[in-house]
Amino acid sequence: MNKKILLLTAGSSGGHRSASNALKSAFLKLDSNINILDYDSNYLFLGYNGKGGEQGYITITTRFRIIWKIFFEITSFFKSISNYFLFHAIKRNFSRLIIKEKPDVIISLHPCFVGSALKVLRKISNIPFYVVVLDPMKHSNLWQDKKVDLTFLPTEETKEVFLSKGFDKNKLVKTGFPLIHKEVDEVNKASKKKILFVNPSQKSLRLTRKLIETSFKFDIDIDIITGSDGKLKKYLEKHLPKREGLNIYGYVNDMPIRLKEADLLLTKAGPNIMFEAIYSQIPIIFTGHLPGQEETNALYAVNRGYGFVAENPKALDKLLKRIFIDEPNLLETLRNNEKRCPDLDGAMNIASRVLKELSK
Predict the structure, then answer these.
(1) Beta strand ranges found along the chain (DSSP E)
(2) Tens digits of residue pLDDT in 19-32
(3) Is residue 168 left, alpha or beta, with left meaning phi > 0 and alpha meaning psi from -120 to 50?
(4) Alpha-helix residue ranges (DSSP H) falling in 262-312
(5) H or E stretch including 66?
(6) What's the Cα-to-Cα distance from 55 to each of 51, 182, 228, 230, 328, rounded to whole Å?
(7) Which of these, 74, 123, 69, lies nearest to 96 by C-alpha position?
(8) What is the pLDDT of residues 118-157, one digit of tens each?
(9) Does this model's pTM top 0.85?
(10) What is the radius of gyration, based on Cα positions, of the chain?
């Protein structure tokens, strides 16, 4: 099928990019002739040059959490006003992009480019416009637009929210989360248990350090991955005491292997890392969350028996004692629950449905 699909994502890394990469991979597996344009939609804003966007996002969500919370809630509550400003901010560049690329379908993986982008598109063309929602529990109202041709949803909880808002059930498709399935050879785990910390808390550098130090009393190895947060990496390298079996890394490209090697993941409640962990069958302790869209993500995993929440050192200490001392079989129980997760094939389910629609 010689068709072109325009994916509206954001950034060169991070959650939106990971999801679009998964979707692109699924399309190409199903049809190697499909033409995928994986577009960083930040370039639709006048003056954006590709610099500062991701680091700015990290700064505001980690150092100015209250400001991000207020921004998220206001833009979500005043959806029509938000889309009005977004429409005028992107209309010139988005119109040019559509006319230049002439896609057969557009798929948005970012809430800022749903209602605003669809309004621009409908002034030019009637090609199908689909949306892939990436938030499994709470989400911004910017994801919601009843004029979208199809909305793909990661969980039953999200679908119920859309139905409660009066959306046509025939335009809603519960698919699961778009995730790249990277097969990893079985690893020989060491006799000593290993904890993997992945950017575990965004409240403060000091709290992150305290959470990590809480695990020191247990006879375990500890790997810490700070991702793109260079400030956190430098802080931990400076303030954490030297300890055998403790390793600190920045951005890594082998997360599937690291997940397989670990026995327990401690992380904030981001949807990508959560579903990656579930796919790798590694139990999760949620030690933080981004205010706004991540506030209830942990409930998805906790309610299904995939993990726990411990956002302060005292709660974490109690939980680690339970896992490593009092209930040594608990990790295996959590892993068995994760094996039955039904929401891990989103990328292939979405790609299959879109190609089916295109074939019509």
Answers:
(1) 4-9, 35-40, 105-108, 129-132, 150-153, 172-174, 193-198, 220-225, 246-249, 264-268, 284-288, 307-309
(2) 999 999 999 999 99
(3) beta
(4) 271-280, 297-303
(5) helix 65-77
(6) 8, 27, 8, 10, 40
(7) 123
(8) 999 999 999 999 999 999 999 999 999 999 999 999 999 9
(9) yes
(10) 21
